[in-house]
């Protein structure tokens, strides 16, 4: 059975791509591969989640209020929009995080959908057991989301050809940490074969 699998694309937004407020070098280069993952999962009628930072103008996450980061991904601004090359499927479930001004909201497990339903609740309702994770940034939101997923008993596959980090060393440490907790790495060819064969 494949119905227990879901794809998650983390924070592929203008502010995290080159030219954005917190642009990750070559962050936009993963987009064509992420789009291919979208096609694979939609073709198999498997759920697709797409997360976004969706910060209020004032939040403890930002430097002005004592946080580590310059303002980015502020609700309803161009920087918070998904990168224009990202072909977000109509069926995708958009998850918003960082909406609470008291919390950083790195993990998609802090996110909620348009009806304010938490991510983990949606996963449980849909019977999801395996998460395929792509996006930006490997050493921040991809890392915390993956670790939270593992802690909550999900199988985690980080899509190594569809992630990009801020710092190379930090990203390597993040991947090592995820693997040490039983997460696994996969590529588009691995996933394509598995979905065709119906195995995990």
Radius of gyration: 16 Å
Specify the CATH architecture.
Answer: 3-Layer(aba) Sandwich
Number of beta strands: 6
Helix content: 25-40%
Low-confidence segments: none
CATH topology: Rossmann fold
Average pLDDT for all residues: 96
What structural class do the secondary elements suggest? alpha/beta
Summarize the biggest pleated sheet. 6 strands, parallel
Relative strand content: 15-25%
Ends distance: 9 Å
Order of strands in the sheet with most strands:
3-2-1-4-5-6
**The CATH homologous superfamily:** Isochorismatase-like
Order of helices and strands: EHEEHEHEHEH
Per the principal axes of the C-alpha atoms, what is the gross shape? globular
Number of helices: 5
Describe this structure in words.
The protein is of the alpha/beta class and 200 residues long. The protein has helices at residues 31-43, 119-125, 138-151, 168-180, 188-197; strands at residues 5-10, 48-53, 93-97, 130-136, 155-164, 184-186. A six-stranded parallel beta sheet has the order 3-2-1-4-5-6, with helices on both faces. Helix 1 runs parallel beside helix 5 and helix 3 packs parallel to helix 4 (168-180).
Briefly say what this structure is.
With 200 residues, the protein is an alpha/beta fold.
Element layout with pairings:
Blueprint: E1 5-10, H1 31-43, E2 48-53, E3 93-97, H2 119-125, E4 130-136, H3 138-151, E5 155-164, H4 168-180, E6 184-186, H5 188-197
Parallel strand pairs: 1-2, 1-4, 2-3, 4-5, 5-6
